Amino acid sequence: MDVTPKIIVGLGNPGKTYEDTRHNAGFMVADRLAAHWGCVFKTDKQRKCELAAGPGVLLVKPTTFMNESGLCVGPMMRFFKLDPRSVFVIHDEVDFPLGVIKLREKGSAGGHNGLKSLIAHMGTQEFPRLRFGIGLPRGKGEMTGHVLGKFRPEERELLDVMVAKAADAVLYTMQHGLTKAGNIFNTVQDA
């Protein structure tokens, strides 16, 4: 059942140190949406986030670290008395290569610490999400270094295209619902 998003949450880590890192793909898409709507993020210390008001929706970037994202989103969902299905989450996905996005109605955390925190604080796995492929580390690299690392120069062009595509997917979801958006924007993962 499609529910219109009331809050769009981009996941990432706060601060200059983490800008443009793979783990901040959710922030990148949220920033693109804010630019599209001409709205500006403002810090809300009480809610532990940066907020921007789009048309009929709040854009949210938690200012907690990724593994504590739920400390922002759970209380905000309850304050506004929202159905969890109206909280739309954008996050990085290491299991997909860069260039792959997938919209999902619900799901487990799948090892993603930001999602684990959201599930714990929202009390459910049933919230829509956009999974943004960032790829696995080359060779046997450490996962933490990979997700907290910046995109390589040769990835920048595709990254820009995918951030724009992900923002378009969110906009389409808001107008037509998650099911129709998934039929159009979910990309097939290469084997």
Residues in β-strands, percent: 15-25%
Largest sheet: 7 strands, mixed
CATH class term = Alpha Beta
* Coarse structural class: alpha/beta
Order of helices and strands: EHEEEHEEHEHHH
How far apart lie the N and C ends? 30 Å
Query: What is the helix content?
Result: 25-40%
CATH architecture: 3-Layer(aba) Sandwich
Fill in the CATH topology. Rossmann fold
Give me the number of helical elements: 6
Tell me how many strands there are.
7
Q: What is the CA-atom radius of gyration, in angstroms?
A: 15 Å
Strand order of the largest sheet: 2-3-4-1-5-7-6
Broad shape: globular
Walk me through the structure.
This protein is α/β, with parallel strands linked by helices. The chain has one domain: Rossmann fold, CATH 3.40.50.1470. The chain is built from six helices and seven strands, in the order E-H-E-E-E-H-E-E-H-E-H-H-H. Helix 2 packs parallel to helix 3.
Condensed summary:
It catalyses: an N-acyl-L-alpha-aminoacyl-tRNA + H2O = an N-acyl-L-amino acid + a tRNA + H(+). The protein has 191 residues and is of the alpha/beta class. 35% of the residues lie in helices and 18% in strands.
Summarize this structure as a short list of keywords or feature phrases.
191 residues, alpha/beta, Rossmann fold, 7-stranded mixed sheet, globular, Pept_tRNA_hydro, Pept_tRNA_hydro_CS
Topology:
Elements: E1 7-10, H1 25-37, E2 42-44, E3 49-54, E4 57-62, H2 70-79, E5 87-93, E6 101-104, H3 113-122, E7 129-133, H4 143-147, H5 156-176, H6 178-185
Parallel strand pairs: 1-4, 1-5, 5-7
Antiparallel strand pairs: 2-3, 3-4, 6-7
